[in-house]
TrEMBL record:
<keyword id="KW-0812">Transmembrane</keyword>
<feature type="transmembrane region" description="Helical">
    <location>
        <begin position="29"/>
        <end position="49"/>
    </location>
</feature>
<feature type="transmembrane region" description="Helical">
    <location>
        <begin position="97"/>
        <end position="114"/>
    </location>
</feature>
<feature type="transmembrane region" description="Helical">
    <location>
        <begin position="69"/>
        <end position="85"/>
    </location>
</feature>
<keyword id="KW-0472">Membrane</keyword>
<protein>
    <submittedName>
        <fullName>CBO0543 family protein</fullName>
    </submittedName>
</protein>
<dbReference type="InterPro" id="IPR048147">
    <property type="entry name" value="CBO0543-like"/>
</dbReference>
<keyword id="KW-1133">Transmembrane helix</keyword>
<feature type="transmembrane region" description="Helical">
    <location>
        <begin position="126"/>
        <end position="150"/>
    </location>
</feature>
<feature type="transmembrane region" description="Helical">
    <location>
        <begin position="6"/>
        <end position="22"/>
    </location>
</feature>
């Protein structure tokens, strides 16, 4: 089996282990963030692939979907769920911005390494900074939608 398939398979136990870092009192928030992230990545992921900006040469469900099921429908939503559950809302704006920058940068660096050394992703008309911006916007939009969902009628 190719190394790419091992990497794809390893994302599932790693993602499941990450879920144990979500505090029990934030599970509902994490589930909502997970589902909102799936919605966002479903729409944007398919558009990006269909426009020929990215390609996923090695992926699960290749005959059904040209996007990366593992990343866009599982791993990124799990990370976003953790992001929202652990978000430092009572801290300074600088800490909150650093939180966005840290999560987004780690995911972007990982993608750059996967693009360079594996066949999991190939940039066609895409650059790393586009990934950084889109992941950061996904985190931000998911955060806003999750807060709205639990706002009890208050306008943000």
């Amino acid at each position: 089996m190719r190394i790419e398939y091992w990497l794809l398979l390893s994302a599932y136990p790693i993602g499941m282990a990450i879920l144990f870092f979500i505090p029990k009192n934030k599970i509902r928030l994490a589930v909502v963030a997970f589902l909102f992230t799936q919605l966002i990545t479903f729409l944007l992921g398919l558009v990006v692939v269909e426009l020929g900006l990215l390609q996923y040469p090695v992926r699960f469900f290749a005959s059904i979907n040209r996007a990366s099921f593992t990343y866009e429908y599982f791993f990124l939503p799990v990370i976003c769920a953790l992001f929202n559950a652990r978000y430092p809302s009572n801290r300074s704006t600088l800490i909150q911005c650093g939180y966005y920058i840290g999560y987004t940068s780690i995911l972007t660096i990982s993608e750059i390494l996967f693009e360079k050394y594996t066949d999991l992703i190939k940039y066609i008309n895409w650059e790393w900074y586009i990934t950084w911006v889109t992941v950061c916007l996904t985190f931000y939009l998911t955060r806003i939608l999750s807060l709205w969902f639990f706002s009890k009628g208050k306008v943000l």
